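Encode chain A's predicted structure.
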Amino acid sequence: MAGFVDSTVKDIDDRLRELKEEVARLEAARTALVGGRRRPGRPRAAATPQPTRRRAAARRPGRPRGRSRSGTRANQALELVRSTPGITIPQIAEKMGIEPNYLYRVMPRLASDGQVRRDGQGWHPAG
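Encoded structure for chain A:
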């Protein structure tokens, strides 16, 4: 029985190899007849990429790129913790009108700066 299965698998593999070779030949013939025209879809990459010109970013002197880190929301969160000790991140987010995922980054930073501390789920002012 095992010999039959092995020979059948070998026959299938041989036939698949033949079919793949046939597909390659047919695709080459089609390309030769059509002259390299492609069907609609993603355009082919250029043979030699054209250099792209980028405009210099308008930057003000002394200002770093990207977002400014003024900490306005961090300050708002800190004030809420001071006014309501034990407040949770979802409660802070609700009062601030923002998504809580931002606060899951801000609150640990405030804790590492020594401004707040965590007690269970709630946040308390440090000291």
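Residues 1-36 form one domain.
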